[in-house]
Every structure is written in structure tokens, then in C-alpha cells.
Design goal:
24 helices, ubiquinone biosynthesis, transmembrane, five-stranded antiparallel β-sheet, four-stranded mixed β-sheet, alpha+beta, kinase
Length: 547
Amino acid sequence: MNRLRRLFRIAWVFCRYRLDTFLPLEELPAPLKLFFLLAPWHLFPKPKVSRGDRLRLALEELGPVFVKFGQILSTRRDLMPDDMAAALKNLQDRVPPFPSDQARSIIEQSLGAPVSELFAEFSSDPMASASVAQVHAATLLNGQKVVVKVVRPGIERVIHQDLALMYLMAGLLEQYWSEGKRLRPVDVVADYDATIHDELDLQREAANASQLRRNFENSPLIYIPFIDWDYTTQSVMVMERIQGIPIADVPALRAAGVNMKVLAEKGVEIFFTQVFRDSFFHADMHPGNIFVDASNPEDPKYIAIDFGIVGTLAPDDQSYLARNLLAFFRRDYRQVAELHIRSGWVPPETRVNEFEAAIRTVCEPIFERPLKDISFGHFLLRLFQTARRFNMEVQPQLVLLQKTLLNVEGLGRQLYPELDLWSTAQPFLEKWMRQRIGPTGLYKSLQSHLPAWLEQAPEMPQLVHDALLRLRSTGTTEHQNRKALALMKEQNKRSERRWRRGFVAAALAATAVASTQAETQQLAANMPAWGWALLAVAAALMLRGGR
């Protein structure tokens, strides 16, 4: 019965805002086309607002789950028309709060004690109310000022109902809309499914906050509040209460005398540090989640909250992305095309020359403008749209990264319109690449891979023996067994050679590094010539690792 009422409510809102005009009616089968043409919503006049505002108002009326979905859609400019994405960006995460007695009940049930015994003070009026949770101010018994985040009661049941309907609609679009297979609406809903369920688990958010705090401990760039794990469960999270100026309150920042240029450049440095140094980045950096510590106006510091959504990149993605960006800075479009193919982002049969020409067509008009007038985030968006013409599949990790970069760049330009994100990013990327492929990077790579080789080497004979037993049990012919045995023996010999080369390479690299007493960051400047020669030999041995 509840599902039926919810379906009726969604249908009513659908009719009221004439969302039927978004459907590709001409591409639907005849029975569905007839249904939509005779449907009752034609009795409703079309609201005199843009299509983007109609969609935004409908999502707001449908409640927190749809509001959150609209916010995520607003970041997917690769899927949404610009006017609709801009309208959805205006969705506010301020939804009506749920009663404080329900919040108290959830806290007491989760933490196993009355609120009066858990906190010296607890504010019944929520500080903020969002899609899946709301926040109350409190004071611990030891006097520490904290905030208590509580998941909305019954939100999981509503999410399941609404997701089922979203999957149904996305499936119909993917089946009957000509653009459906390319835009993959079912995958978009699946991404949202994973995101919103992650946000329902406050222990997961707390773990993300702890990791980010550890990554930026004592950093002059950003402060991450601490989590009180004694008061944190899946439904309740207690976090240090912070004091700062909201990042969107530019007049207040200027009144406090904040150096806006330094603040904007620090935001860029934080982003690239998270992505390339840590491969763990805050992926929900909209203005409501960022504050500024202006106690030292000439050296301001960011404060971040709300860590339900984080992103990571695999080492290969990190490397390919950095090389792509540096190739763009140098206008080396051939390398950009080759990197896309080598990374597997576009099919291997893609013709490099055609792909290179398409990338040049996108990039050259951009580079003719002053760098400060170029949007880095929109540039990546254009690139991914071009790559999709060559059958580039949606890369979820890159979409999340692009969304975060758009947020960071938007904030930076709002704070300091002259911000040149390109020139701020280039030195950071070049330094990161030098560290990755220079002596320090080689030494760290040897350190990380050698233990695995040493662990696997003693097991190789047993692995060969087990493989031969499996071959015998499958009933293969004697000739096939002999061929398999010869192959296994050859692989065993190669493994032994690879292990010996790895051991020698590690010893040579360690000797080279030991030749200087400098810190690892200064190896390149202090290493003698014979140390470089040892590193070169070690690198050559590593490159032969597969033979």
C-alpha cells in the first residue's frame, strides 16, 4: 500500500510539472506512444519556467532521496544538457528536519544510554538538516564541543522504494531511447545507489574523516575535525565542532582580511595533493561543506566536513592522468591520444591519427585564450565528450574526479577571479612525475615489489606441481601434458631469473641510495655519478622483469 501511494505521489508530481516533455516520445513503441499522448497530464498547463527549473521543482517536491539524486545529476554534465545541469545545481540540501524526539530515540538506541548521560548539553533544535541525516550541537561530559549527526528515521525504506522506480524508468530509457545505451542511465542510477547507501553508513563516513585527518595531520593547508569513536555507530556520528567562516561568504572573508589569492591557490594544492599524493580525495567539496579558519588572515586554512563521498584512483589511473595533463600543457596531442589508448579508456583499435585530430580540434581554440580565462574542469569535460565519440566508456573514477575539480575550480574563481589553475597545477604535476620516475620513485618501487617477489619465490615449485595435477585430473592427452610440463618448467625458470634480477636490482639501488647521506627528496642533487650508474643498471634489470 505504501508503495502504491508513493507511486501515485510521483505520478502526480510528474503530471504537475509536465515532465513528460522530457521523454523521447517519437522513439517509443506505438502502445507506449499512444499511452503518453492520451495520458491525463495533458490537462495540466505547462509551468511558465524553464525545463531545468521544472525538473528542479519536481525533485524538491518529491523529497530528500530525489533531491540528492538531482544534486548528483547536476555534476554529470557529460550526461545532462548544460541548462538542466545548471538548474539542478541550485538544489539546496536544506530539507525539513525530523522531530528532535526521534533524533534522541535513535541516539539512545544506538549508543545504549540516555542522552542526558551521554552529553552535558544537547540542543534539540538541529543545526542543519540534509537529505539523509541532520546535525545537532552538543557538549560531551568532558566539556568538548561536538556535533551529533543522526540518520533520518525510515529513510532506508524510502530509498529502496524510490530506487526501484528509478531503475525501472532508467531501464525503459536505455531500451527505447536512441541515446540510452551511450548515456547508460541504469549505470547512473547504480552509481547513485552506491553513493546514497554509503552515506547512510555513518561509520564509513567517520572512517573517511579519520583517513583524511591522518593524511593532513599538522598541515598548513586544511584541518579535518576528529571523530569520537566511542560515540559513533552506523546511525550516529559524533565529531568535533568547528568554528570558521563559510567558504561561500566572500564578504565575511574579505571583512576578516583573508588573503584571497593564497586561499584560492591553497584549494588547488589541496585537491592535487589528495589526488596524486594520497589517491584519496574528498569528493563532495560543495560550498556547504567547506569553511575557512581566518585566525591568520595572510595564511588562511581550510576546514572540511561531511566525508560521505570520497574518491580514489588506481596507480595506473594516477600516472595516465598526470601524463595526459602534462601533455596538454605542452600541446602534445599525439601523446594524449596514445595515452588514452594505452590506458584502455578508448578501444585499442582506435585510429590514433583521427583521435589526435579530434583532440586538437577541441584544444586549440582553448589555448588561444588567456590561461586565466580557461576552465580546467570544463576543458576535461570537453575532452571526455570527444573521447566518447571514439567509444570511450564512462570511467566512474574520472567522473568523480571531474566533479570534484569543477567544485574546486568554481570555489577558487569565486574567491579569486584571477586564479590560473593551469599554472598552479603544472609545477605540482611535474614535481610529482619527477618523484615517481626519478631515483626516489625507483627506490620506493623496488622496496614495495621486492617483498612480494621474495614471498612468492619459495612457492613456485609447489605452484607448478599443483598446476600439473590439475592438468592430469582434467584428462588431457599425454602430448598435451608434456607440452604443459615444458611450459611450466620454462615459466619456473623465468620466475627464478626474475627473482634473481629483482634481488640484484634492489641491492644495486640500495647501494646507490646509501652513497649519499641526503634525505630522499634530495637524492638527485647529492648522488655521485657511480650511484647513478648503479641505478641505471637496476632499472635495466627491472625492465627485463618479464623475460
